[in-house]
Design goal:
Layout: E1 36-37, E2 43-44, H1 102-115, H2 117-148, H3 159-202, H4 209-216, H5 220-252, H6 254-278, H7 282-289, H8 293-305, H9 308-337, H10 342-380, H11 382-391
Antiparallel strand pairs: 1-2
Length: 392
C-alpha cells in the first residue's frame, strides 16, 4: 500500500520516489511556472497544469485545486494562523490537510492512538513490557551483587575486594550495553511501524497489525542503519569535545583547561541539538518515502533546516511534556513501592516504566511523523497529493 502510489523507490537518488510521492526538485511540473512563496515559506503551485502531481486542476467532481472549491485556497493555508475564515478545511483523517499548528500536531497524535489503539497502544505496550522484563532479568544479577557488596574499611581493603568490585562493575557494564542495544533496536523498529500507521491514519485509513508489518518490514534493515548513523552523528560532538578537553588540560594546565572544557561542553551541546533537529525527519522520510539511508538523511536535512527553530521548539516541548508525564506517573508509584521490599520496588518500577513507554513511544512517533507531513505540506504542497490519494 503505497502512500500515495507514485511508482517504485530509487533508494540512492537525491530526490526519493514512491511512498509519499515525488518531492519537487526545481518546479511543480515540466513547463509550470515557479511556485509563489508565502510569508511562512509555504508555496502555492500551479495545479491547473499537467505537472508533477497530475491533472488535479481539471474541472471535475472536486473542483479546481488552487481555486476556491471543496478544499479551499491552498495559498491561504500558508499563514501560521490557519486558513482564511469561512473556507472549508479538507480533513479525511486525523489532521486537516493544511499547514499544522502546534495544537493540530498534538491533537493528531492523540487521534492516531485513538483511531488504531491495537497497533498504536496495545502493540506498543506488549513490546515495551517484554523489553522491560528482559532488561530486568538481564540486569538483576549484577545489580543484586553490587547492592550486596559491602566494601571493607579503606585501610584494610584487600585485593580480593578490588577484584570483586571490578568483576561486578564489568558485568553491569556488559549487561547495560546489551540491554541498551536491544532497546535501541526494538524501539527503532516499533517507531518505524507506528509511523507507517500514522501516515495511513492521515488518509482516514486504519491499518491492521499485519498490514502495518508488511508495509514496514522491508524497510527495517535500512531503518536500523539510519538510526545507528544518526546516533553516531549526534554523539560525535561529545567525543570530539572530550578529546579536545584532555589535550587542553595537558597543554595549558588545570585552570585554563577547566574554562576551555566548559566552552567545549556548551559548543558540543549546541552541536548535538542542531544535529538532532536536522536529522529528526530522516526516519519518517525513510519509512514514508521508502528512501535509502543517504537519501533519507538528505531529505531530513532539507525539510528540517527550513523550519529549524520551529521543529527544535516543538521537539523540545514534546520531550519536556513526556518527561513531566513520565515523572508524574512513575515517581509516586516508585516512591511508595520503595517502602516495601527491594523486589517489589523493582517490579513496580518496571511495570510503571512499561506503562509510561506504552503511551509516550507512539505519541512521540506520531508527533515526528506529523511534523514531517506538515513540512511537506508547507513546502511541497503535499496536501494536494493527500487529498487526491484519499479519494482513490
Amino acid at each position: 500500500m503505497s502512500y500515495p502510489p507514485t511508482g517504485p523507490q530509487q533508494p540512492d537518488r537525491p530526490e526519493p520516489a514512491g511512498g509519499w510521492g515525488v518531492p519537487p526538485a526545481s518546479g511543480y511540473g515540466s513547463g509550470a511556472p515557479a511556485p509563489q512563496q508565502h510569508g511562512d515559506g509555504s508555496q502555492q503551485g500551479q495545479y491547473g497544469q499537467q505537472g508533477q502531481y497530475g491533472q488535479y486542476g481539471q474541472q471535475g467532481e472536486h473542483d479546481q485545486y488552487g481555486q476556491q472549491g471543496q478544499y479551499g485556497q491552498y495559498g491561504q493555508y500558508g499563514a501560521p494562523s490557519g486558513p482564511e475564515p469561512g473556507l472549508p478545511q479538507a480533513q479525511v483523517g486525523i489532521i486537516p490537510l493544511r499547514p499544522l499548528r502546534l495544537g493540530d500536531l498534538y491533537e493528531g497524535a492523540f487521534r492516531a492512538i485513538r483511531t488504531n489503539p491495537v497497533v498504536m497502544f496495545v502493540l506498543s505496550g506488549i513490546v515495551v513490557t517484554v523489553l522491560a522484563v528482559l532488561t530486568y532479568l538481564v540486569s538483576a544479577g549484577p545489580l543484586a551483587e553490587l547492592a550486596a557488596w559491602t566494601p571493607s574499611d579503606p585501610e584494610t581493603l584487600t585485593q580480593e575486594d578490588l577484584d570483586q568490585m571490578t568483576s561486578t562493575l564489568g558485568s553491569l557494564a556488559v549487561t547495560t550495553g546489551i540491554t541498551s542495544l536491544l532497546s535501541l533496536v526494538v524501539t527503532t523498529l516499533l517507531t518505524g511501524l507506528l509511523m507507517q500507521t500514522v501516515s495511513q491514519a492521515v488518509l482516514g485509513r486504519k491499518l491492521s497489525l499485519g498490514e502495518a508489518w508488511r508495509e514496514s518490514a522491508p524497510l527495517f534493515a535500512r531503518l536500523l542503519g539510519l538510526t545507528l548513523l544518526v546516533t553516531l552523528l549526534v554523539v560525535a560532538p561529545v567525543g570530539i569535545a572530550a578529546v579536545l578537553a584532555v589535550l587542553t588540560f595537558a597543554a595549558v594546565g588545570l585552570t585554563a583547561g577547566a574554562l576551555v572544557t566548559f566552552l567545549l561542553v556548551v559548543v558540543a551541546l549546541a552541536a548535538m541539538l542542531f544535529l538532532a533537529t536536522v536529522t529528526l525527519l530522516a526516519t519518517p522520510a525513510l519509512m514514508l518515502e521508502r528512501a535509502g539511508v543517504g537519501t533519507a538523511l538528505r531529505r531530513g536535512w532539507r525539510l528540517g533546516i527550513r523550519s529549524f527553530w520551529r521543529i527544535l521548539g516543538i521537539y523540545l516541548l514534546t520531550s519536556v511534556i513526556i518527561g513531566v508525564v513520565s515523572g508524574m506517573i512513575s515517581g509516586p508509584g516508585s516512591s511508595l513501592a520503595s517502602l516495601a521490599s527491594p523486589t517489589v520496588a523493582m517490579v513496580v518500577s518496571v511495570a510503571l516504566s512499561a506503562l509510561v513507554q506504552a503511551f509516550t513511544t507512539p505519541f512521540l512517533a506520531s508527533v515526528v511523523a506529523l511534523l514531517y507531513i506538515d513540512q511537506r505540506i508547507r513546502y511541497e504542497a503535499l496536501d494536494v497529493e493527500l487529498a487526491a490519494a484519499a479519494r482513490r
